[in-house]
Amino acid sequence: MPSKNFHVRQAAVSALRAWAKGHDYAESLVERHAQRRMLSSADRALLQAILFGVLRHRRILDHWIGKLRKGKLDADTRDILRVGLCQILILNIPDHAAVNETVEAGKTSVRPLINAVLRKAITSRKRLMEELDEMPPAVLYSHPDWLYNRWRKSFGKETAIAIMEWNNQPAETFFRLNPLGEADASLPPGEALEHAPGYFLLEGKLPTKLLAEGKLYIQDPATRHSVELLNPKPGEKILDACAAPGGKAFLIAAALGGGAGLTCTDSNEKRLPRLEENLSRLHIQADEISVHDWRKPAPERFLGALDAILLDVPCSNTGVIRRRVDVRWRLQPSDIDDLTVIQSEILANALPCLKPGGRIVYSTCSIEDAENIDLVKAFAEAHGLRVEKSVRIIPTEHGTDGAFAAVLRREK
User: Fold this and answer.
1) End-to-end alpha carbon distance in the chain
2) Mean pLDDT over all residues of the chain?
3) What is the pLDDT of residues 386-401, one digit of tens each?
4) Facing residues of 146 across strands?
5) CA angle, corner 329, sides to 168 and 40, nearest 5?
6) Which of 360, 370, 371, 372 is nearest to 407 (CA)?
7) Residue tagged active-site, from 242, 315, 353, 365
8) How far is CA 109 from the centre of its chain?
9) Is residue 68 helix, strand or coil?
10) Can you spell out the DSSP letters for 215-269?
11) What is residue 18's predicted lDDT score, i.e. its pLDDT?
12) Is 365 one of the catalytic residues?
């Protein structure tokens, strides 16, 4: 019988093949393949480390494959080699385990080739590492050339490289205490964040029991900026227009002292059950949770009825590539242009819902000016709004996810 760890490598290869077909995101593939093979928590963690490692470092892995093996490779064999080299050269998994278990994941006909390439990588490790300094930054840090060039133009070469390096590190886990529930002295160990009151850096295992009880919520501190700019006040009527899965709605409700006055919508009906479940677990009962696609005109009942609107719009996700490891390979330059059209439509359709003097907070998890400050300024000028304040969060500067938020005020 093959060892259990063989199944982890095989699962990683299967997940990569599914990912390459474009039907699934990396996060869902980890869960699906772990459940399918009934992996233990330790093996699930290994599967995630390998899969995420390959996707984070895909370009440098392919560079190494080209150095170690001349000639064409079929897609399956290339994925197996990516899995093996990631373990040997990135994750520093013991050589014997990385080689033996990965070789077993291949078909009998290609096992000699896989074995030879992986063992050549071990004997060539020092040379391969010494060559890293000579590589172009986009290859070394495994990002598309267009994205690196875009960031170099926006932020300068040093910051662009730092962002790519940041994106290749495992993401930390943060949590926020729930002020709407009962205090609990047995909260998990965590380091309080000085720059983000109420947030903690999680130390140790995920506190599943406390999460289920609604005592805390897993959330990156970058989330707070948009809600702080929204500045919800008890008694106001507030809409979270793109609310699922509920993280920002939670922060709004915490500021309101509960769910009274809060309306949540989302464009995807399939996301509503998770939104409702999350809010219920966090002791929040919103006034309304419903489906609406804000690329379409607003429902009549919302017109002129709201004090404040949070628009956490669909975006390129370039601020959260550290967490969403495959974004860099899915995103194309034209996608950003297409997204700005959608983002502007959402703003235009939400605007009539404000009361005189009301405010919209526009937010993204993008670090692209085209989706952020450039769009907001152009929209405000075209619609007679005032941009009161904006904030741009760059991961390498703030140590959190990247984000943008701006307050647009409608004059009385």
Assistant:
1) 74
2) 94
3) 999 999 999 999 999 9
4) none
5) 60
6) 360
7) 365
8) 38
9) helix
10) SEEE--GGGHHHHHHH---TT--EEETT-TT-HHHHHHHHHHTSSTTEEEEES-G
11) 92
12) yes
Residue 217 pairs with which residues in a beta bridge? 176
Between CA 375 and CA 337 the distance in angstroms is: 11
Contact status, residue 178 vs residue 216, Cβ threshold 8 Å: yes
Half-sphere exposure of 271 (CA within 13 A, CB side): 14
Q: What is the pTM of this model?
A: 0.93
Tell me the domains of the chain and their CATH numbers.
4-135 (1.10.940.10), 222-410 (3.40.50.150)
Cβ–Cβ < 8 Å for 365, 311: no
From the list 324, 319, 371, 318, the residue with the least C-alpha distance to 346 is 371
Q: Hey, what long-range contacts does 252-256 have (CB within 8 A, 24 or more apart)?
A: 252/227, 252/310, 253/180, 253/279, 253/282, 253/284, 253/286, 254/178, 254/179, 254/180, 255/227, 255/231, 256/232
For tokens 């899915």, the residue is 330
3-class DSSP state of 95: helix
CA dist 352 and 301 (Å) reads: 11
Beta-carbon neighbour count of residue 35 at 10 Å?
10
Distance CA 151, CA 153 (A): 5
| Residues present in the chain in total | 412
- Please give the structure tokens belonging to residue 265: 């919508």
- Write out pLDDT tens, residues 186-212: 777 789 998 898 899 999 888 888 999
pLDDT of 2 reads 41
Which burial class, exposed, middle or buried, applies to 345 when counting CB atoms under 10 A from its CB (0-12, 13-18, 19+)?
A: middle
| Position 187, amino acid | L
Q: Residue 222 is encoded by which pair of tokens?
A: 């970058």
The backbone region for 236, taken as left when phi is positive above 0, alpha when psi lies in -120 to 50, beta otherwise, is: beta
In the predicted structure, residue 321 carries a pLDDT above the cut 90: yes
pLDDT recorded at residue 3: 44
In angstroms, rounded to a whole number, what is the distance separating the alpha carbons of residues 335 and 1?
A: 47
